[in-house]
């Protein structure tokens, strides 16, 4: 895929995302006027109150919002501004181009662990994106690649023949992460990658993301939605904070929390001072 002339993996200019009206529900603006740039090689952490638009942004930037709809699924649409991802203007992304675009963006959805296909083995699940891209991919090379990814997310190779129901939630989450990374994407968009994972494994996931960034220099970037501060400290160069669909703060973790101007960021900083490492207990923001 051609990279952006400016080289930035993600450029958002005054981006507004909206869910169209459906059934009795009116249209809903989930994100309003967001401008943000992710630098080549940068990992940006994204925090925010519940319903502030984090997952909506992830769905659009990963391209899943542009895939054919399943059932009554309502997808967000870009109603203002522009999002440029890996050199593609998403407003002009045609349906035919979506699969190719998605091969370059690893996406770990929020509910990834709970939605693994129940009738496939771990090896099949992790290897599927490779076969979707190339049905005739060499089977031995496929096995090796899948095993390497399983190892990278610190799962034993004995898991390869297991089915999702035989795994714990944390193991399933790591299978989903291995799948998101199996094509060696230049951009990872991960929605709560360490949710439901115990502390030691959380460390390993943070380490893996950090390693990818360091090893690939300027060719691997990521947007990591997380409320887990130790994970963000290890992986994120900067963080962005959303509140009610708008950008509330942007900077390094220290910059953002040292001088919080926005009430929601102040509340987060207060939670940190009170010793909370995982700051998702402010879901509705202050005063809600
Ligand atoms: N399918 C949908 N149709 C209409 N509105 C939606 C839909 N999905 C989400 N929304 C609304 O869009 C807003 C943003 O939702 P989103 O899931 O992006 O928030 P979030 O920041 O990821 O929240 P959380 O931290 O709880 O996951 C919310 O007000 C939500 O109710």
UniProtKB/TrEMBL annotation:
InterPro entries: AAA+_ATPase, ABC_transp_ATP-bind, ABC_transporter-like_ATP-bd, ABC_transporter-like_CS, P-loop_NTPase. GO terms for biological process: transmembrane transport. Residues 10-269 form the ABC transporter domain. Pfam families: ABC_tran (PF00005). Keywords: ATP-binding, Nucleotide-binding, Transport. The keyword Transport applies. GO terms for molecular function: ATP binding; ATP hydrolysis activity. Belongs to the ABC transporter superfamily. This is ABC-type dipeptide/oligopeptide/nickel transport system ATPase component. It comes from Agromyces ramosus.
């Amino acid at each position: 895929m051609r990279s952006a002339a400016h080289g930035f993996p993600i450029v958002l200019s005054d981006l507004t995302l909206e869910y169209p009206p459906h059934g009795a529900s009116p249209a809903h603006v989930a994100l309003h006027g967001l401008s943000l740039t992710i630098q080549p090689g940068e990992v940006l952490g994204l925090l925010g109150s519940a319903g502030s638009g984090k997952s909506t942004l992830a769905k659009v930037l990963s391209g899943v919002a542009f895939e054919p709809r399943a059932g009554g699924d309502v997808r967000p649409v870009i109603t203002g501004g522009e999002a440029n991802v890996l050199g593609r203007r998403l407003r002009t992304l045609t349906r035919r181009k979506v699969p190719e675009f998605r091969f370059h963006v690893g996406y770990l959805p929020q509910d990834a662990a709970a939605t693994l296909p129940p009738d496939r083995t771990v090896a099949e699940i992790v290897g599927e994106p490779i076969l979707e891209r190339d049905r005739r991919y060499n089977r031995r090379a496929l096995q090796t690649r899948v095993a390497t990814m399983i190892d990278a997310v610190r799962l034993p190779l004995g898991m390869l023949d297991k089915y999702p129901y035989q795994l714990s939630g944390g193991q399933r989450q790591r299978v989903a992460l291995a799948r998101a990374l199996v094509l060696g994407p230049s951009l990872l968009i991960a929605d709560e990658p360490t949710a439901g994972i115990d502390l030691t494994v959380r460390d390993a996931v943070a380490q893996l993301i950090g390693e990818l960034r360091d090893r690939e220099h300027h060719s691997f970037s990521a947007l990591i939605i997380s409320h887990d501060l130790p994970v963000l400290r290890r992986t994120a160069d900067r963080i962005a904070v959303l509140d009610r669909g708008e950008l509330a703060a942007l900077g390094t973790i220290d910059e953002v929390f040292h001088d919080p101007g926005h009430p929601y960021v102040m509340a987060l900083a207060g939670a940190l001072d009170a010793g909370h490492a995982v700051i998702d207990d402010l879901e509705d923001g202050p005063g809600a």
